[in-house]
Amino acid sequence: MKITKVKAVYYSATGNAKKVVEAIAGTMAKELDVPMESYDFTLPKNRTEVQVYGPEDLVVFGTPVYAGRVPNKMLPVVQGNFKGEGALAVPVVVFGNRNFDNGLIELRNELENNGFHTVAGAGIATSHVFSDVIAPGRPDEKDMALIEEFAKKAARKVSETTELPAPIAVRGDDPVGPYYTPLGTDGKPAVFLKAKPLTNMELCDGCGICAQVCPMGSINPENCAEVTGICIKCQACIKKCPKKAKYFDDPAFLSHVAMLEQNYTRRAEPEMFL
What we know:
It is built from 7 helices and 11 strands. By secondary structure, the chain is of the alpha/beta class. It folds into 2 domains: 5-178 and 266-273, Flavodoxin domain (Rossmann fold, 3-Layer(aba) Sandwich); 198-249, Alpha-Beta Plaits. Strands 1, 2, 4, 6, 7, 8 and 11 form a 7-stranded mixed sheet that branches. The protein has a two-stranded parallel sheet with strand order 3-5. A two-stranded antiparallel sheet has the order 9-10. The two termini are 16 Å apart.
C-alpha cells in the first residue's frame, strides 16, 4: 500500500511509551523511505482537538497499560480524538514487567473502531514506574534490537500489502475483560485509588516541573504540594522532579509496590504480532 508518512502517536507520562513508539515509527519510516512525525497527547493541552488521518498514513499508536488495560482516563481520548479514515496502524503497549493483559487487544479494537486498519502490534516490557528494582533500564539493548527487527518486518508487510488487512491477531480477551486488581503483600486487593503524591518541602524548590508534567493537570503550579484534582498514579511528577521531593506514603499503594517487587523481577519478554 502507498504510505507517504509515518506518525508516532502516544500517551507517555514517564517516557517509556514515547521511546518505544518513536523507535518503531522511526525504523518503519526509514524502511519505507518516508518522513516521520510525532504527536504526544500526554498533556491536557494536546487533547483538545481531533486528529484525523488518511489512507496514506501509517500510525504507530502507543500507551502504557495501567492495571492491564489502556489507562482508563485516556481511553475516552483514544476513542474520541483520533480518526483513522482508512489509515494503517500499529498498536503498541508498554508494561512494567508484569503483564500487558488485555491492554493490546483493547487498543487494537479501539483503533479499528475509529477507522484504522491494524497491520501489526506489540507489547513491550519496560521499567516499572512504581519501582526502581523492577526491570531497570528497560527497554535495554536486547529489547531495542528486537524492536528494530519487528519494525523492519512490519514495514515490509506494509509495503507488500495490496488490500486492507484484517485486524491483527494479538494476545488478549475479546471482548476485553475487567481491569487487573492490584494486590498487596497479603494477597488481598490493595485499594489506593484516592492516594495522591506528597511533597517533601525541605527538598522542593518550587520549580513547578511537577505541575507542568502532570497528565491530569492536577498539581497547583502556585503550590506544588497541593494536588487539586485526580491522581492516576502515573508517577510523572515523581520521576521528573529534579529534587526527588515527590513521594507516596499510602500504605495500600506501598504494599502493592512491595508485592510487585517480590513477584515480578523476572525478565518479561516483549511480544510482537505480525
